[in-house]
UniProtKB/TrEMBL annotation, chain A:
InterPro entries: ABC_transp_permease (IPR001851), LivM-like (IPR043428). This is Amino acid/amide ABC transporter membrane protein 2 (HAAT family). It comes from Salipiger aestuarii. The lineage of its organism: Bacteria, Pseudomonadati, Pseudomonadota, Alphaproteobacteria, Rhodobacterales. One of its GO terms (cellular component) is plasma membrane. The chain crosses the membrane at residues 21-38, 44-62, 69-89, 95-117, 122-139, 172-193, 220-240, 260-284, 296-319. One of its GO terms (molecular function) is branched-chain amino acid transmembrane transporter activity.
From TrEMBL, chain B:
InterPro entries: BCAA_transport, Leu-bd, Peripla_BP_I. The keyword Signal applies. It comes from Salipiger aestuarii. Residues 26-370 form the Leucine-binding protein domain. The lineage of its organism: Bacteria, Pseudomonadati, Pseudomonadota, Alphaproteobacteria, Rhodobacterales. The keyword Disulfide bond does not apply. CDD domains: PBP1_As_SBP-like. It comes from the Bacteria. This is Amino acid/amide ABC transporter substrate-binding protein (HAAT family). Residues 1-20 form the signal peptide.
UniProtKB/TrEMBL annotation, chain C:
SUPFAM superfamilies: P-loop containing nucleoside triphosphate hydrolases (SSF52540). Keywords: ATP-binding, Nucleotide-binding, Transport. Residues 6-247 form the ABC transporter domain. GO terms for molecular function: ATP binding; ATP hydrolysis activity. This is Amino acid/amide ABC transporter ATP-binding protein 1 (HAAT family). One of its GO terms (cellular component) is plasma membrane. The lineage of its organism: Bacteria, Pseudomonadati, Pseudomonadota, Alphaproteobacteria, Rhodobacterales. Coiled coil: none annotated. The keyword Nucleotide-binding applies. Pfam families: ABC_tran. PANTHER family: ABC TRANSPORTER ATP-BINDING PROTEIN (PTHR45772:SF2), CONSERVED COMPONENT OF ABC TRANSPORTER FOR NATURAL AMINO ACIDS-RELATED (PTHR45772).
From TrEMBL, chain D:
This is Amino acid/amide ABC transporter membrane protein 1 (HAAT family). It is found in: Cell membrane. One of its GO terms (cellular component) is plasma membrane. The chain crosses the membrane at residues 6-31, 43-62, 68-93, 105-123, 149-170, 199-220, 232-257, 264-287. It comes from the Bacteria. Keywords: Amino-acid transport, Cell membrane, Membrane, Transmembrane, Transmembrane helix, Transport. GO terms for molecular function: transmembrane transporter activity. GO terms for biological process: amino acid transport. Pfam families: BPD_transp_2 (PF02653). InterPro entries: ABC_transp_permease, BCAA_transport_permease. The lineage of its organism: Bacteria, Pseudomonadati, Pseudomonadota, Alphaproteobacteria, Rhodobacterales. It is a multi-pass membrane protein. CDD domains: TM_PBP1_LivH_like. Belongs to the binding-protein-dependent transport system permease family. LivHM subfamily.
Length: 330, 429, 250, 301
């Protein structure tokens, strides 16, 4: 797994280019205004943000040079934990559903992680795929427990004890998604440049030296793996609460591959790229199928080919080169 | 992006006044059907038929001068895409009434959603009885029968034509419909013929392309009767592979939804198997095949699609008939140009309407009372595919549990005498 | 007499027929600066691999201050104060020279605060000083993959030193360094090690370096320690000239 | 589990294993030589099936005998290899050999997405069914159990033939040796004048032909639907990873394990049948991290 991630270590600690921060701020403000200026887009963007947070989990692993083709597993586990919780406790609060979902994802991340951190490269990717397919098969076949192929409904949880109407709830979960995007995005950015984050990224370049610094590469990878599982858990839970239904589709391998697709589309290794990639992906998916007669897969596939062949840095790579080219600084 | 903004503005303008509503430019209807995947052999004919119904009706000026416009949502895109598209159409797309859905799984998801979005929804094809038995709905109606009436008709026909079979196996699709239909059929059989032994229960994946492992198992088990409530591409594959392996000579197949596959199966469906049509739907319907509207539609459909209509087309006709009848009734009852939502809902209660089959009516729990047609396959040579003989049409009333009662609980109170208590008309072919 | 800092007893290592170490027993005393010389492929690097737990011997034990560390993985041995510099520099190729050291220091101190920037950790100045010590301060912010072989070797040693070890095992420390600077670098290195009280063992081919900077020399040949003594005794010894140096000169 | 059920499970397992092996063979060959796991392999499999059904349907309509279905299978397999396999390598993969592994994987995933839609545009969404080849060979009864000759005899024979043929080709022909050399060490091979690019093009095309052949041979046993590619490819990953990447012989053993495991599970605990292949993969990799026949790469320092 040679280097693919944007060399974030080059944007050293203090002097983060102001242009990029401004643009990010502008982007977030634009999202915040969506329910006012484009209410029809609210649901679509909410789904994209949930997916973006999950893709952030995949981006974390990309930074260690590892690609998982099964991270939809944690996305799905968190969603199903939420659905089972609300089914057994109808009045459950939204934050409780989110917390339990993420907890389920973390526990699964630990159990699966303990096994997959022994592997690297293609085997790491395929083993994650195998675990997600095992969970998918269980969801599909054990009908009486998991609702089988039709999945389970996740009736609307309460918010701080209040029984919410549909419109109100969708606003709450929209702004919760934005808050989580900003919070988790900020944390991940800081984590990447922190000692533990930097050590995590040495998995890609030299595990031997890491061992000779007195650290266990497997435990270091496991710490990053747990973070990625948790992020996927947050995404899964938000998606489930927004959609109101959880199906085995959440865990199908194509969805895991889709996450890697979005991470690279946005800009492999870039935190902002995960969200921008998810937004672009969802918009193309909805509008292509609405206006281009359901060949959205073809369009997105072609789009990814163009990105990989001509702009491997992804959308963020393009954005950065634009910023630097007309950059005002040095 | 632009047109999305304008349509949302339009939605704001639609006042939801309690009294009359002013006539909209067009009556927007959203209809979910399978346009992709193995079930498309089922969903596409229904869409083609609906286009014909709408075209004919608009030619006569639509409803009180308002033309009808139907937009289709593909159920094959998966539950997620379906729910977001349904929500978008009902919410901002300006649809006044939704027709959802074919798959029982999707019905279970979209019915509560319609209630949530406060949009009238006609469950035009899905059969699972749970929806109205587990909760009561204000906005959701079903202009057709349900699994209970269909399975009881199949059991009744089976017991009348094969009173002394001993073993049975089931191969149903692994989702809501497959599981619910087997539970009802099985409960009815236990009550009406307790000595029957169930030798095998298989639930292959919905949309599974290959049934060879299940067929091998059936070859070993050699059951007298094989039940399969699968439909569309799955049923075609299952029957064709079973026919190849000679399974259709050793077991009698009970296929309550096979009417929809007759034409596609061609000679792969030999004589002597029990065929159902989820209602009194058959392109050679003994009581309706001479009626003028029936024959003119058959010709129009054949010219448009080149094939014969299957029961999803009949269900589409019933949904369309219910829709138009409801609007006409609401307009007449309230003497308005265009009914408000409340007035439309009131009209739908206890509505009487007629599609391509017999007359139907909606009970207070919004469940349609639909007659059930069963027959036995025969290769007369008149058509390049099997047709039906020894046709029995069971009246719908007797096949449904009293309003408010749960199906399997009610069935457990029945006994062998139930079969003879049903009012039925028999036809030679 | 206190126990030796590190000791091996009857080490036996076989690789597909080749005996890399044949019942080797060897002592490394605290504070000394031992050089290991011997023909190529004699098993010198394998010896370092065994001492640091990278390879497990078929027979025999490795002791650190009398404690048996044979079964331990390298990371546990490193935690007990043993560090290593490699023949092929093992660095984090996507990080800068300074970051390589900061990561090493952070690993030593324990990675606590996930929100603090790596560049702001307390040991930053100490690491800049260490970089300066190995003449690489000017390339602190350059990504190591862009540096010369010699610079990478020195940073590799600095990364090991950053762990503040009690024992430093080095594999040909000055190979790749310009010959004019070899002695100067060795001078500073040995000085720093002595100042920090670090025992060092280094595999070396350059007899000039061995003569000037090692206080004891062990001759490794055919999987065993043939001879051991002060540089003067060893470098004039006829067998050494024939087997080790002779081979060099010809 | 009386004798008949045991035999039926055995026959199901063998016929399924043969099919999965043929598809996995192409996948593992491509990975062995080019270190690329071709996700688009599933689409090539599906298009092989669609092409066979269309060709067979066309020729049968003209009155040709059903036995013509067999040569048509080879024709469609070669068509898939040449019309799709070649261009994919030549136009796309060739430009990214220097790029990181994840981007190579994603290029094949992008091609997979494109081809899934192309299938739908060309062949629509309704299921196709063309079993004349299977019917032409009729059934056979072994110990009282009737099974189709096509699935019980033809498929395993083709699978074994391909295994031995490919092994012979790689070990005893000039091109085969070139491929093995490039697999061993691409730089070394190039340094002694082997044109790695031609070797890659040839290997990828052969791999695509094998995928197409897998689809062609599968077409009579199943109805051809959108999505069959996605189901088969994830199963082939399990076979290839269990065997050890690039292990051709290993793929045969892994395919047999997964085929039999799945078919016996149907008789013991049907719900788990779908789960078994991935369970086997995880258990094997737990014991042997490089796969059954993979060799661990020692890390030199």
């Amino acid at each position: 797994m040679t280097d693919i991630s944007q060399n974030s270590t080059s944007s050293r600690a203090s002097r983060r280019p102001s242009a990029r921060t401004l643009l990010t701020l502008a982007g977030v403000l634009l999202l915040v205004a969506v329910p006012l200026i484009a209410p029809t887009m609210q649901l679509l963007i909410n789904l994209a943000l949930a997916k973006g947070i999950a893709v952030l989990g995949v981006t974390v692993l990309l930074r260690a040079g590892q690609v998982s083709f099964g991270h939809a597993l944690f996305f799905g586990i968190s969603a199903y934990v939420g659905a089972f919780l609300v089914a057994s406790m109808p009045g459950a609060d939204m934050m409780l559903v989110l917390a339990c979902g993420v907890l389920g994802a973390l526990v699964a991340g630990l159990l699966v992680g303990l096994f997959v951190v022994r592997y690297r490269g293609i085997f790491f990717g395929m083993l994650n795929l195998a675990f997600s397919m095992i969970f998918w098969s269980i969801l599909e076949k054990f009908y009486h427990i998991t609702g089988g192929a039709d999945g389970i409904r996740l009736t609307r949880p309460t918010v701080l004890g209040l029984e919410m109407e549909r419109g109100g709830f969708e606003l709450v979960i929209f702004y919760l998604s934005i808050a989580l995007m900003v919070g988790l995005g900020w944390f991940t950015l800081r984590w990447f440049v922190s000692p533990v984050g930097q050590v995590f990224q040495t998995i890609k370049t030299n595990e031997t030296r890491l061992e000779y610094l007195g650290l266990s590469p497997r435990r270091v990878l496991l710490s990053g793996y747990m973070l990625s599982a948790g992020l996927c858990g947050v995404g899964g839970s938000l998606m489930a609460m927004t959609q109101g239904v959880v199906t085995p589709e959440y865990v199908w391998w194509v969805r895991s591959a889709e996450m890697v697709f979005i991470a690279v589309l946005g800009g492999a290794g870039s935190v902002r790229g995960a969200f921008i990639g998810a937004l672009v992906y969802e918009i193309v998916r909805i509008y292509a199928s609405a206006y281009a007669g359901d060949i959205w897969q073809l369009l997105l596939g072609g789009f990814l080919l163009v990105i990989i062949l001509f702009a491997p840095g992804g959308i963020m790579g393009i954005a950065d080169s634009l910023i630097h080219r007309k950059g005002t600084r040095q | 992006m632009k047109n999305l903004l304008t349509s949302s503005a339009l939605c704001m303008a639609l006042p939801m006044a309690a009294w009359a509503a002013d006539k909209p430019e067009t009556l927007k209807i959203g209809m979910t059907t399978f346009l992709t995947g193995s079930a498309s052999v089922f969903g596409v004919p229904a869409r083609d038929a609906m286009d014909i119904f709408v075209e004919n009706r608009n030619a006569e000026g639509g409803i009180n001068g308002v033309p009808i416009e139907v937009t289709y949502i593909d159920e094959g895109a998966g539950a997620e895409a379906l729910t977001s598209e349904f929500r978008r159409m009902a919410d901002s797309g300006g649809a006044e009434v939704m027709l959802a859905a074919i798959s029982s799984g999707n019905c279970q998801t979209l019915a509560p959603l319609a209630e949530d979005l406060k949009v009238p929804n006609l469950m035009w094809d899905c059969g699972t009885q749970r929806i109205f038995e587990e909760a009561d709905y204000e906005y959701v109606f079903r202009p057709q029968g349900n699994a209970t009436s269909e399975m009881l008709a199949a059991v009744a026909y089976l017991l009348k034509t094969h009173p002394d079979f001993e073993t049975i196996a089931v191969v149903n699709q692994d989702y809501a419909w497959g599981r619910d239909s087997w539970e009802i059929f099985h409960t009815a059989l236990e009550v009406m013929k307790p000595d029957v032994e169930v030798v095998g229960e298989f639930f292959p994946k919905f949309g599974s392309p290959d049934f060879s492992t299940e067929i091998s198992r059936l070859q070993a088990l050699r059951p007298d009767v094989v039940l399969s409530t699968s439909w569309g591409g799955d049923l075609d594959t299952f029957v064709q592979q079973a026919f190849q392996r000679g399974l259709m000579n050793t077991s009698t197949f009970v296929l309550p939804l096979a009417e929809s596959s007759l034409e596609r199966l061609g000679n792969a469906l030999p004589a002597g198997h029990i065929i159902g049509a989820r209602g009194d739907h058959y392109f050679l319907h003994p009581e309706r095949r001479e009626d003028e509207d029936f024959t003119s539609f058959m010709a129009q459909y054949k010219e448009a699609t080149g094939g014969i209509p299957v029961y999803s087309v009949f269900h589409a006709s019933q949904a369309f008939a219910a829709l138009t009848a409801a609007y006409e009734k609401a307009i007449a009852d309230n003497d308005v140009d265009w009914p408000s939502e409340e007035q439309l809902l009131a009209a739908l209660d206890g509505l009487e309407f007629q599609g391509l089959g017999r007359k139907l009516h909606l009970r207070e729990d919004h469940q349609g009372v639909e007659s059930q047609l069963m027959g036995t396959s025969v290769q007369t040579g008149e058509y390049p595919f099997a047709t039906l003989e020894n046709i029995m049409i069971f009246d719908g009333e007797g096949l449904l549990p009293p309003v408010g009662e749960e199906s399997t609980a009610w069935i457990r109170t029945l006994d062998a005498g139930f079969v003879d208590s049903l009012s039925v008309e028999t036809y030679e072919n | 007499m206190t126990a030796p800092l590190m000791e091996t007893r009857d080490l036996l290592i076989k690789f597909g027929g080749v005996t890399a170490a044949n019942n080797v027993s060897m002592q490394i005393w605290a504070g000394q600066n031992l050089a290991i010389i011997g023909p190529n492929g004699a098993g010198k690097t394998t010896f370092l691999n065994i001492c640091t737990g990278w390879l497990k011997p078929q027979k025999g034990k490795v002791l650190l201050e009398g404690h048996d560390i044979t079964p331990l993985p390298p990371r546990k041995i490193v935690r007990r104060g043993v560090a290593r510099a490699f023949q092929i520099p093992q660095l984090f190729t996507e990080h800068t020279a300074l970051e390589n050291l900061l990561i090493s220091a952070a690993a030593r101190e324990g990675l606590r605060n996930p929100l603090q920037n790596l560049h702001n950790i307390a040991q930053r100045d100490e690491m800049m000083h260490l970089l300066d010590l190995v003449h690489c301060a000017d390339v602190a912010d350059r990504v190591v993959v862009e540096l010369s072989e010699g610079q990478r070797k020195l940073i590799d040693i600095a990364v090991a030193l950053a762990l503040k070890p009690r024992l430093l095992l080095m594999d040909e420390p000055t190979s790749g360094v310009a010959s004019s600077q070899k002695h100067e670098v060795m001078e500073i290195l040995v000085g720093a090690l002595a100042e920090a009280g670090v025992t060092s063992v280094f595999v070396e081919h350059d007899m000039g370096i061995v003569a000037r900077h090692a206080d004891e020399v062990a001759v490794w040949n055919a999987g065993n320690v043939q001879l051991r003594g002060t540089p003067d005794e060893i470098l004039e010894h006829p067998d050494v000239i024939r087997d080790v140096i002779g081979e060099e000169v010809a | 589990m009386n004798l008949t059920i045991f035999l039926l499970a055995l026959f199901d397992g063998i016929s399924y294993a043969a099919l999965v092996f043929i598809v996995a063979l192409g996948l593992t060959l491509i990975f062995g030589v080019m270190r690329i796991l071709n996700i688009a392999h599933g689409s090539l499999y599906a298009i092989g099936a669609y092409a066979t059904v269309s060709l067979t349907g066309f020729f049968l309509a003209l009155g040709f005998a059903p036995v013509f279905a067999f040569p048509l299978m080879l024709v469609s397999a070669v068509l898939v290899g040449v019309l799709l396999g070649g261009p994919i390598e030549w136009l796309l993969l060739r430009r990214i050999y220097d790029k990181p592994e994840v981007l190579q994987l994603l290029v094949t995933f992008a091609v997979f997405m494109i081809l899934e839609d192309v299938q739908r545009l060309v062949w629509g969404t309704q299921p196709y069914f063309q079993a004349s080849a299977l019917q032409a060979l009729g059934n056979v009864t072994v110990f009282g159990v009737t099974y189709t000759v096509y699935q019980l005899i033809l498929l395993p024979m083709v699978a074994i033939g391909l295994l031995l043929g490919l092994r012979f080709f790689l070990r005893h022909t000039v091109i085969g040796k070139l491929i093995l050399a490039t697999t061993e060490d691409r730089e070394a091979a190039q340094s002694i004048g082997i044109d790695a690019e031609r070797v890659f093009l040839f290997t990828f095309t052969v791999g695509a032909v094998l995928a197409g052949l897998g689809g062609a041979l599968a077409s009579p046993t199943t109805s051809i639907l959108p999505g069959m590619g996605a189901d088969m490819i994830v199963l082939s990953f399990a076979v290839v990873a269990t065997a050890g990447l690039g292990q051709i012989g290993g793929a045969a053993v892994a395919a047999l394990m997964i085929g039999l495991g799945r078919s016996f599970a149907v008789y013991v605990w049907p719900e788990v049948a779908v789960l078994v292949p991935y369970l086997i993969m995880v258990l094997v990799l737990l014991v042997r991290p490089e796969g059954l026949f993979g060799s661990p790469v020692a890390r030199k320092i």
